[in-house]
């Protein structure tokens, strides 16, 4: 059985110091008791202390362990939620950073992106599309619309000069895209992210959870190659950095792969020939008729563990509070 | 320590400390306590140094040479032990409880008295009179008394000395010796004590515990006063707490000593860690020396 | 809205009172070390360690607070959101707005014709939360500003940025209608509407308004035409977008009522004339009520359980108590 939030199991590491404290406190407590309660007390008093300490500590340990287990939570009851998507919403999120000019994917990365967008739009009849471009930050260029003409005419202007802020802020791009989906409708929501940038770990988990909350699946298309490519300049030659070396952009697909997979999407390489057919299949929403009516939601099973935790706490208290043998 | 162990310890007193009892009490008993009156013993010829006032003129005139009466302190004195059996004596931080030490002291005293053919009685008190054993002579009585000391199960929890003193005053008409054995964790009864000391020979024996002088370093716990049932936190890990508690008991002790001295009540402090027999011995030696 | 999935667990909270009583107030409880702490019925020792006692009090409070949190977490707190989901497709509406210089005429107090039109469009769009709305503006040329979209915020932002005269000097009504019709062609909506707001005569563009109206009619698009402005001479003031100069003057206002009527009639729409802000408001309201579609909605409830933060807090609180007592104060039991 796999926990829903296994990261909480790290908390179990706290138990070791807790146990150490408990054991050392038992011995020091025994000493304290003999100092103030006197040595004349019969052994039964100290036996009582031992038994009580044991059960109090045990109860507390049970509490800690099971509270942590309930935090982790385990997938429990499944129940269907009616779900009838009325169509498909796609927000294309395009990287327009300088490196998209690189021509390792002919004719250029940006042109390849534009081709992908056009193909998807043409082949998704009842789709609604929007376009977000990003560089240093994300900007919504075309709001979600059925009017593919406006998307096409925008694609003609698509260039790295659209935005001036430097950089390749994927996070801002995806955030803008998530907010671009119209509310109050039940549709399949996809983001098609076309970028050659890097996505850092911290940003990745945060946007992934935002996307999951908004019910958005992110499909990532990595343009570029791991080997890297040079960036051509309009006046000829290639972009150089301040040291005079030619800048080489390399694709780092790991973060993109994680982002797409954790939102239920998929990662593609732009050079992959199977990319478009697969993407179109996704966009068309070809899912089984029955399946699409319901979506299975899983409820976390945590209460069982929490009840045991509370019981542990109760036992630990009760053992302390109930006077045994009229003595302790 | 359960009552069986205590009993055996008390029973052993005649054997273990027989020498002590013989040595310090039987010999000195007479002179340690001023008796209630004098008893005519014999008449013998005057020798130099005899008190002129003690010449028996009747015998002198008959015999022709000076004779003096010799007296002996009245025999058959009554020793009455006022033994505190309140719950506060059921504690103790050392090897023994205060109650154990109290029982041993009482047993030693009772033993000595019986050994001298004196009458011995006892009042066991808490906030009420738990048991009243009238002064009587004899080994059997002693045995019964010692048995009572070991096995008494008090009903009350507090300790009201004035109540016990009132009881003694009613029942002891003739002058006797009263010894209060208590930890003096009682409401002040100094007025009643000085009244009692006017009529009887009164000794106050206070039993203390090592923890009263030096609070042990302990972890956090909750203490319950066995008499009042009051619960208070014990912060033995804090040096300030330990100092405060030590000062509290010290002030209490100093007050007790001063009151006893002011009212002319002989006082003796015995710690549970001390040997009660030795403590009694040195006390009586000191007293005789006065 | 916060609800409890199993509120019956909250009854456990009442058990806390006896628990607290037996733990802290009951004199016959266990775990107490018998030790004389005072004279009977007389003075007794009271510890003065107020700081330690304060810490202990806080620690105790945090323990019981932790217990309370656990119980509340057991009751299954969850945040339930009720969302309106539209099942029906709305009407696609395209505004075609004149932005020729004459729209700067100041006869719609407190502002000019153009801003008055923007205000009514804004009001209209806000009320139409489920109808995709787009915007085409025209002067000498015509351009799509916003494709028909449900993204109201995006629409309003774009509307705010609109300025007069960006498309030159002229009134290409036909071009405006044609562009609007073009961008409605992919629409899957059953009803499509163009709302044309202008104050002039068609004097520019390659397409005659009549033929544009026919194209629209062929696509099943209804056109409502609104002629705004007063007849006669009116004051005018606008900023030339190229030179940045403020241009003021008088302008002899007139517009082609016949043309607008014809366009409306060709496409089964209606022509309105608005000579004041109130009239314009009223007309938009009329169109709004004419173009109301049947709305089918369902309420989708999504619940998000909130037990985790509570358990985390409870764990922290109880661990804090444990830590204070056992590690700092070396509690015996």
UniProtKB/TrEMBL annotation, chain A:
<dbReference type="InterPro" id="IPR036465">
    <property type="entry name" value="vWFA_dom_sf"/>
</dbReference>
<keyword id="KW-1003">Cell membrane</keyword>
<feature type="transmembrane region" description="Helical">
    <location>
        <begin position="302"/>
        <end position="319"/>
    </location>
</feature>
<keyword id="KW-0472">Membrane</keyword>
<dbReference type="InterPro" id="IPR002035">
    <property type="entry name" value="VWF_A"/>
</dbReference>
<dbReference type="InterPro" id="IPR050768">
    <property type="entry name" value="UPF0353/GerABKA_families"/>
</dbReference>
<feature type="domain" description="VWFA">
    <location>
        <begin position="89"/>
        <end position="283"/>
    </location>
</feature>
<protein>
    <submittedName>
        <fullName>VWA domain-containing protein</fullName>
    </submittedName>
</protein>
<dbReference type="Pfam" id="PF13519">
    <property type="entry name" value="VWA_2"/>
</dbReference>
<keyword id="KW-0812">Transmembrane</keyword>
<feature type="transmembrane region" description="Helical">
    <location>
        <begin position="7"/>
        <end position="28"/>
    </location>
</feature>
<keyword id="KW-1133">Transmembrane helix</keyword>
<feature type="transmembrane region" description="Helical">
    <location>
        <begin position="48"/>
        <end position="74"/>
    </location>
</feature>
From TrEMBL, chain B:
<protein>
    <submittedName>
        <fullName>DUF58 domain-containing protein</fullName>
    </submittedName>
</protein>
<dbReference type="InterPro" id="IPR036465">
    <property type="entry name" value="vWFA_dom_sf"/>
</dbReference>
<dbReference type="InterPro" id="IPR002881">
    <property type="entry name" value="DUF58"/>
</dbReference>
<feature type="domain" description="DUF58">
    <location>
        <begin position="42"/>
        <end position="232"/>
    </location>
</feature>
<dbReference type="Pfam" id="PF01882">
    <property type="entry name" value="DUF58"/>
</dbReference>
From TrEMBL, chain C:
<dbReference type="Pfam" id="PF00092">
    <property type="entry name" value="VWA"/>
</dbReference>
<feature type="domain" description="VWFA">
    <location>
        <begin position="92"/>
        <end position="287"/>
    </location>
</feature>
<keyword id="KW-1003">Cell membrane</keyword>
<protein>
    <submittedName>
        <fullName>VWA domain-containing protein</fullName>
    </submittedName>
</protein>
<keyword id="KW-1133">Transmembrane helix</keyword>
<feature type="transmembrane region" description="Helical">
    <location>
        <begin position="9"/>
        <end position="26"/>
    </location>
</feature>
<feature type="transmembrane region" description="Helical">
    <location>
        <begin position="310"/>
        <end position="328"/>
    </location>
</feature>
<keyword id="KW-0472">Membrane</keyword>
<dbReference type="InterPro" id="IPR002035">
    <property type="entry name" value="VWF_A"/>
</dbReference>
<keyword id="KW-0812">Transmembrane</keyword>
<feature type="transmembrane region" description="Helical">
    <location>
        <begin position="50"/>
        <end position="75"/>
    </location>
</feature>
<dbReference type="InterPro" id="IPR036465">
    <property type="entry name" value="vWFA_dom_sf"/>
</dbReference>
<dbReference type="InterPro" id="IPR050768">
    <property type="entry name" value="UPF0353/GerABKA_families"/>
</dbReference>
